[in-house]
Give the backbone structure.
Amino acid sequence: MSLEHFIKDALSPWMYEQGPDNDIVMSSRIRLARNFATVTYPILAEHEKLDDIRSFFKKEYEHQTFQSYKDLEFVSIKDLTPVEKSVLVEKHLVSPHLVKRDEHAAVMISQNEQVSVMINEEDHIRIQLYFPGLQLKKALEEAFHFDDWIEEKVNYAYDETKGYLTSCPTNVGTGMRASVMMHLPALSMTKQINRMIPAISQLGLVVRGIYGEGSEALGNIFQISNQITLGKSEKDIVADLESVVNQLIDHERVARGFIMKRSGIELEDRIFRSYGVLQYSRIIESKEAAKCISDVRLGIDLGIIENTSGNILNELMVLTQPGFLQQYANRTLNASERDVLRASLIRERLKLEN
């Protein structure tokens, strides 16, 4: 296995699996922040210490297998091209912050891309684990097992009162961020999402765009995650998040039924117009592509568009991002060139599907 394995395909292998409520919930993620007990945190640590940590993980875990997470590939961020970095971010295998710390940063990625371990990001260790659909409890259980495996060789920074100690005070306690990626087109169309976001924030949760903090909700994709990490157990945090997510699922289903009943022909027209744009455009910008892809995915989920995979939203949302487009072209592209190639790749993908 090599880096090419992770950047040549838009979809990670685990994304082909079906999960509960996957017509609305695209994925569930658990991320655990951990630090070495006797090493200064990355933002202040000496470069030699960070290099020692990177070398430790390469020596101890490269090509190791833990349960179903096979053949961990070790990748030094400094060895990547700017395009390769972008692709890994677009596939959610690394964070935007990690690639900015490239001199001493690294990542370990399992063969199925379900687990990635970021090294020397904001914390020494950030373990993230994905499951398709709404599977937060299962993701948490698996993350605990993987965390225990790492802890067999690492003495974590931990306080009996405060919990896990982290670089940022907002992560102290469990050190956990639980999140779900949701496709909420009907709540967006009916404008209900605008009043729901403030209500969700009052419950200690945060709503962000597809690439986390500071990102836009392209294609009606929203990331819902916990803000509180101190004073609650991991299981309680996950239970609270899952309760809100289930309510959002119910509201989205009701909104879809309402639109179908009240504006069925207008909705079909919107969906097929978007499908036509994707099938025949020669130039398409990322925002327009995201909007059309969202419409088509909604059409698939409602049975309006048949014989097309529901994975199309996941795949095309990555396939049409700047890094992946340039990786495909094998050269740097300006915005106009990306718009042309984006349209071409979408047409090609839909033609293959049909």
